[in-house]
Input
Amino acid sequence: MASHTLVKKQGGTAHRAALCSCPRPTQACIRPWALLIERLGNFFDEERDPLMTQTEDRTSLSTEDTPLVPIEKVVALSKRRGFVYPNSEIYGGVSGIYDFGPLGVELRNNIRRYWWWSMVQLNDNVLGIEGNIITHPRVWEASGHVENFVDRLVDCKNCKRRWRVDHLPAENLEQNKCPFCGGELMEPRTFNLMMETYIGVVEGERMKTYLRGEACQNIYLDYDNVLKSSRIQIPFGICQIGKAFRNEVTPGNFLFRQREFEQWDLQFFVHPSEMQKWFDYWKEYRFEWYKGIINHTDRLRFRAHESNELAHYAKQAFDIEYRSILGWQEWEGIHWRQDWDLSRHSQYSGQDLSYTDPETKERYIPWIVETSGGVDRTFLFLLLDAYEEEPPSDKDKEGRTVLRLHPWFAPVKVAVLPLQKNKEELVTTAKGIHSRLKRLMVAQYDDVANIGRRYRRQDEIGTPFCVTVDFQTLEDQTVTVRERDGMTQIRLAIDELPGYLVEKVTWS
Output
């Protein structure tokens, strides 16, 4: 196999939305702004203080010594609370394929929205597209996937486990021994990861093609159309979020390696002389993005690719890695793609994909900086980063499990809780508040079990705020607002509640 045509598998996960130093709109929203104005009036025009505070004496949140979370606990929580389910579970399931439940789909939507907002909406020189899963089969010949998108695997003769050759420890590879049982390994075999499908209905006339192995190919295919229809000039970027499929022989570690997953990509087109500048820019931009969405920033790092990992056209490449119970694992890749992709598609399609500078009249094939990650791996790492079990204390006899998700990403933004469900006045008031809030954000109403247990349920799914309607509410139209991480409480007028919460849970 010619090394220069080897297709490097890109990892899949998240993109850092807007640098922490980037200006952010004062009043960004997740629902129509007109509705927000109608409901909130002049809330943002003046500063208001809570009417009263009832703050528990708790130390501030610290993440320095939080232990790494066993992935089994996150898997159990995900199924129990409706984040992730095994696909086709009633038939025994399918390895490497998962469904997302009511809370999972909300979390995924929030992750997608934030990435798109920070990558496309905030950057005037970045545009978005949405390409199809099925393309012409020649696309995958040009990209090299048909011939070289492969894994080399070995099987253990004793325990029958299968291992990727490039993941085996050096000593096991040298001694030809299984890392699990010490048994002898068989000769390596090559597996192509592309998933085949067919276009057409008449047997013998159908055209074989593939479910896309990576989402970025659509960007190269639509590059010329975007350039002409948008009248944008280089340097500029194209973003996309979309499904990709890989026939993984050894899927595992929950959502980390799947057969069907969702990628996000930025392909940024530049003049060759500016490649280094823009590579460094997006490399730092993406790293800061990830730092801004996690609690444990000490678990984030860059890893430079070794020379034997680089494609022949790549001067450099970096992985943004996160440390979890799985070890240091790729979250997103920053790749120096040069003019490889556009040149190959130009060659195989016969179409001229060069660019002419409108001022200098220089004609050239643009070089590309790629940032490639994905929704699913971001979903997993955010859960691993946010999950914490607090031991019992003097103030909390039972202890609690809490999901410290950033309020931007929390599936449920607020829970409305009547103190007692058998008091009609409390229930009616609480349902009225819930009806107002659910038009602005994802809100839950809960009146089952005592108030402490309801708080714990919301902590476990990452809800940042709980609003309790009690007997004082009936007297002065104020409610208790409890914050998840510190368990602090304030009293707030009902009319001020929507504006207070919107400001806390949107990326502004």
About this structure: The chain is about 30% helix and 25% strand.
